[in-house]
Amino acid sequence: MSAPDAQQRTPGTTDWAARADHAARSVTRYFGRRLLFLPGTHLAAPIRPSSRFPGQPWNYWWQAHYVDCLVDTGLRELASGARFDGGDRPSAGRLASRLVTTIRLRNFLRYVNSYYDDMAWLALATLRLDALAERVHKRGRRRNARLQKSLSTQFESASTDDMGGGTFWSTKRDFKNTPATAPVALHFARTGKRKRAQGLLDWLNTTLFEPSRGLYLDGAWIKEGKLALAQEVYTYNQGPVLGALLELGGDANLARAAALVSSVAEHLTVSGLDGPGKLVLRGEGTGDGGLFTGILVRYLALAAADARLPRVTQATASQLVLDTAEALWAGRTMRTDAANRISGNDDDGWLVFSAEPPRPAAETYAPGTAVELSTQLQAWMVLEAAARVQ
Checking DSSP bridges between strand 215-216 and strand 219-223, what pairing results, if any? Predict the structure, then answer.
């Protein structure tokens, strides 16, 4: 059955913040848990319903985006003065801090792993968590500083002149791609290493940019002494490139950012939807792909608010965010059956969002089937982006 909309309003006055709070409660209550019942820990289960015991798949980078979503909610809490889950439950910022600590515990007492893109997502999320702490006049944690130092060293080592530049995807060091290079470039830009960041963007523009569609390909190998391109075009690859272009600024980067928003609207949206002129982004399925479109929307929200971009670009970015958010909200369902309840957490049910924005959740997650964390984080991320755009 459809979940009730706590804020039924006329078009143009939708309370996206309230909708984002619904998503935040569903994820934190129904996926969030302690690690091995240890007090002060917090981690998300990869699927629900699931066992509370070890043995579940470890998705480091999903947890990194969970941190980012909690920071989004924490910023809204700060603005509104009210906690997203009521005054008797931890704030989003507190949960995010516990989560960063617990990621290290679950990752065998270290933040380093085998994938440089995973580490970049966590480093970016933790930078934002520190910024949230500063806004509430709390000192940044030494733990976060150690994390940044450790992971920055990894990014430096992975960003080499092999293949002309770029960042390796994994410690195998046989593939350089957009999903690693772009977030590492964004991290460099946000930590004062602007020249390094621009160098990575220049490599992306030279090597992986496809002019015919105006989008970035997935990556490149060296095979038999020649560069071999991975031709796939994914939604999430475009997002951190857009973020890095905006972070660095300058006429050339801003022009590329504007063109990229236009290309996303032309090539990565779904046609044939009800309603004229809808710009709903396509989904990329479940598993890791369940996060892809949400990541793009996060950075489109930055473009929508960037006054350096042409107004038409800002308007397009805004519409992409809001139309995609509306599609996800319209397709939601609520699960209230006993198998999907957690004691004390079933007061307003469990909202389930579709893995594919244009399709209802009842199609992508039939009643009784397990739901993946990645897709629910994606919907939460999109709703948070809509709240910022609004």
Answer: unpaired
Mean pLDDT of 114-120: 98
0.85 exceeded by the pTM?
Answer: yes
DSSP string, 266-287: HHSB--S-SSTT--PBPP--SG
Strand partners, 281: 269
Tens digits of residue pLDDT in 169-215: 999 999 999 999 999 999 999 999 999 999 999 999 999 999 999 99
**Residue corresponding to tokens 């919907």:** 379
Q: How far is it, in rounded angstroms, from Cα 224 to Cα 349? A: 56
Strands 176-177 and 219-223: antiparallel
Model confidence pLDDT, tens digit, residues 70-107: 999 999 999 999 999 988 899 999 999 999 999 999 99
What's the pLDDT tens digit per position in 340-374?
Answer: 444 344 455 789 999 999 999 999 999 889 999 99
Asked if residues 100 and 147 have their Cβ atoms less than 8 Å apart, the reply is: yes
Number of helices (H), then strands (E), in the chain:
13, 11
The phi-psi region of residue 231 (left if phi > 0; otherwise alpha if psi is between -120 and 50; otherwise beta) is alpha
Write 40-43 long-range contacts (CB < 8 A, 24+): 40/98, 40/101, 41/98, 41/101, 41/102, 41/105, 42/95, 42/98, 42/99, 42/102, 43/99, 43/102, 43/103, 43/106
CA dihedral 325, 48, 113, 61 (to 10 degrees): 0
110: tokens are 């270290």
CB-based contact 305:314 (threshold 8 Å): yes
- Note whether 296 and 235 are within 8 A (CB): yes
